[in-house]
Amino acid sequence: MQLRIQGHTYRSFGQLHGVSHQAVQATAAGKPSKRIEDLLAAVCGLPPAVLWWEHYAESGARIPVERATSRAADPSTPDGGVHVESGEAA
């Protein structure tokens, strides 16, 4: 809502800051992106920890985002990340 008050849409905000409107929308909905969170918070005039409190510990430190491993490198996949016919790693 604050973006609209400032005269922006997700698309115009993304173009202004060199990110996709989908990334802006996803971040506004809660998907972690430190860079975009900081940009959106600046527009709102609030610290990012106030808007995305679930991404921050009580100490104020940002909680690290855990990334999923690549399926190709995941040993739990049926082929163990190896191309079946050639035996080479994917």
Provide the structure class.
mainly alpha
* Spatial extent as radius of gyration: 19 Å
Sketch the major β-sheet.
none
CATH architecture of one domain: Orthogonal Bundle
The SSE string, one letter per element, is HHHHH
DSSP helical segment count: 5
Report what the structure shows.
- InterPro entries: Lambda_DNA-bd_dom_sf.
- It comes from Segnochrobactrum spirostomi.
- This is Ner winged helix-turn-helix DNA-binding domain-containing protein.
- The chain has 90 residues and is mainly α.
- The chain has a domain at 2-63: 434 Repressor (Amino-terminal Domain) (Orthogonal Bundle).
- 39% of the residues lie in helices and 0% in strands.
- It contains five helices and no strands.
- The protein has helices at 2-5, 10-17, 21-28, 34-44, 48-51.
- The model has no long low-confidence stretch (mean pLDDT 82).
Tell me the layout of helices and strands:
Elements: H1 2-5, H2 10-17, H3 21-28, H4 34-44, H5 48-51
Helix pairs in contact: 2-3
